[in-house]
């Protein structure tokens, strides 16, 4: 299964933020959208960072309430591990595990097109295994 298959199932919607956005607005974006991370992009949708729950928690630990007045650029994780639609989900799962990330932006020609989470990858793999299981059961009952 490829990342493009996962995107086909989940869609291409991605919540983004500019680097100069305040962390307070970032927290609102995360909460209002029920998501764990936003992709930080430039004007051309180039990926320059990713900011998520872990980044906010680290900033709060170091700066206290003042963290809410920092910019997203000051707390985001960069550089960002990305993938392409043609990548295999097993490879992306390995990347997520190796670098301990839960969200990977999907990039085509240097521009953000989608995002996949560890949950999306797990669901894709479960669907893949279910299909294989059904095929094997069908084969055995012929």
Could you write a compact summary of the structure shown?
The chain is of the alpha+beta class. It is 48% helix and 18% strand. The chain has one domain: CBS-domain.
Question: What does this protein look like?
Answer:
The protein has 142 residues and is α+β, with helices and mostly antiparallel strands. The chain has a single domain (3-140), classed as Roll (CBS-domain), CATH 3.10.580.10. The protein is 48% helix and 18% strand. It has six helices and five strands; from the N terminus they run H-E-H-E-E-H-H-H-E-E-H. The chain has helices at residues 3-10, 23-33, 53-63, 72-75, 89-99, 118-140; strands spanning 16-17, 37-41, 47-52, 103-108, 111-117. The strands form two sheets. Strands 1-2-3 form a three-stranded mixed β-sheet. Strands 4-5 form a two-stranded antiparallel sheet. Helix 2 links the parallel strand 1 and strand 2 (37-41). Helix 5 (89-99) packs across helix 6.
Model regions low in confidence, pLDDT < 50 over at least 5 residues: none
The CATH architecture comes to Roll
Give the fraction of residues assigned to helices: 40-55%
Overall number of strands: 5
| Helical run tally | 6
- Provide the CATH top-level class: Alpha Beta
Main sheet summary? 3 strands, mixed
Structural class: alpha+beta
Fold-level CATH name: CBS-domain
State Rg: 18 Å
- Trace the largest sheet across and list its strands: 1-2-3
């Amino acid at each position: 299964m490829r990342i493009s298959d996962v995107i086909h199932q989940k869609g291409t919607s991605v919540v983004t933020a500019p680097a100069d956005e305040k962390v307070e607005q970032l927290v609102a974006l995360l909460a209002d959208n029920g998501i764990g991370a936003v992709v930080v992009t430039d004007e051309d949708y180039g990926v320059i960072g990713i900011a998520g729950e872990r980044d906010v928690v680290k900033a709060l630990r170091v700066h206290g309430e003042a963290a809410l007045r920092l910019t997203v650029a000051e707390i985001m994780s960069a550089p960002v591990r990305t993938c392409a639609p043609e990548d295999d989900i097993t490879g992306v799962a390995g990347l997520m595990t190796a670098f301990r990330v839960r969200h990977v932006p999907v990039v085509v020609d240097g521009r953000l097109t989608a995002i996949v989470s560890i949950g999306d990858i797990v669901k894709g793999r479960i669907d893949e295994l279910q299909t294989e299981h059904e095929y094997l059961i069908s084969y055995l009952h012929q």
